Input
Amino acid sequence: MSSETNFNISSLGANTFSSPINLSKTTGDKIFNFVEEHDRILADVSLESFNTCIENKTSPACLEKAGPREKLFFDSKKTTAAIVSCGGLCPGINNVIRGLVMALHYFYGVKRILGVQYGYEGLIPENGHEFIDLVPDKVKDIHEFGGTILGSSRGAQSVEKMVDSLVKNKIDLLFTIGGDGTLKGANAIGDEIEKRGLDISIIGIPKTIDNDIDLIDKSFGFETSFDVASPIIRDAHNEATGAFNGISIVKLMGRDSGFIAASTAIAMPVVNFVFVPEMDFQLEGENGFLEALKKRLNQKRHAVIVVAEGAGQHLFGEDSKTYTDASGNIIHQDIGLLLKHRIKAYFDAEDMKCTIKYIDPSYIIRSAPANANDSLFCNRLAYHAVHGAMAGKTKFVVGRLNNKFVYLPILKVVNKRKKINMEGEFWFSVLQSTGQPFTM
Ligand SMILES: Nc1ncnc2c1ncn2[C@@H]1O[C@H](COP(=O)(O)OP(=O)(O)OP(=O)(O)O)[C@@H](O)[C@H]1O
Ligand SMILES: O=P(O)(O)OC[C@H]1O[C@](O)(CO)[C@@H](O)[C@@H]1O
Output
């Protein structure tokens, strides 16, 4: 940022709370200077020391605690904010949008807040998606609905054109709500802004139902996903017990990480087998899954199987064609259907009667409204995102880490995906709950 003007929030008169908040009490006396902060996090802290810092739960000195700052970089009277949501849907996006608008409007008095429609596409004028004016009245009830009132999209857009659009529309803050693709995009926009020497802040609010964003404790919407999946598993169990050798297969989302499938299995402990992308398993052979399933049916006469969409892709063979979406993400083949067919063929060959039901509730789960805990979480994320933005920070994400809300450089969380540790105690809890063999 070129200018070093610091606005003191109490002198802005922007606070509409009836009793003014004593910011120095809530923040301590630390005053952040935009340029120094930016350089310190992105240049001076190596990934290695950053990671050590994260592992050090007692005093993570290099992690910057989120929250209001005593001095602000942006003058709220002249500030324009924009919000964009990209990638797949996820419970809680509307809560985040609502939280951002409310915090910007009521806490800081930012009156010009623009909603960008249909993801990054909406920042390219040729696409013809108009901005929406976001005011408290417009967003006050949107937490009741799943999805995103702004719409979303996948697919590459010109970073230069997006920055041109930010400049043309006098946007000072861009809040991006999305997964690792969106965050990489946000960082690229931030780089272009830096190259041009502009005073625009780019903020990321990590969104993915898969919970695969690295470092942070959890992403919003994840908890709702297994909350919504749990009664579906209960019903799948009813289907399985309703037939002799009844088998229910439920496919849940999880492109690269199986957190939804694994967490659902623990939350609704009627699941007998879980398959996640992180695991290797065989269908055939003495120690393979089909033998284990036969054993289970002979003992209990029913079985419930939960499979993450990215699991078992090796079973399709190396020659099988892979498809990608508009953003280049792999679209996995239908593992639920493959399991159904292979199980049926196996038991036919064994001359063993069975009834198989295959249930795929993926999109129903993803488009649900946030549960209470996620609603609370989304609100907190939005609140902290606004404070970091108004203090002049850029190219950062807000997230909860070791139970504290912190600001992290975008680049640190998109380095790799978070995955289930197959040697870790979380996975052992899954094995304990399902009773499935350690290896198959
Ligand atoms: N390196 C990048 N530079 C610029 N834009 C990017 C980059 N990577 C991804 N994007 C853009 O970010 C947007 C969202 O990406 P993507 O479709 O992969 O979803 P996502 O944010 O990863 O969410 P989900 O977890 O639902 O997949 C797309 O418009 C995509 O083109
Ligand atoms: O079909 P869509 O909307 O492209 O999204 C599917 C993908 O979205 C995700 O939920 C990530 O947001 C993945 O688990 C899944 O592969």
Q: What stands out?
A: The domain at 222-368 is CATH 3.40.50.460 (Rossmann fold).
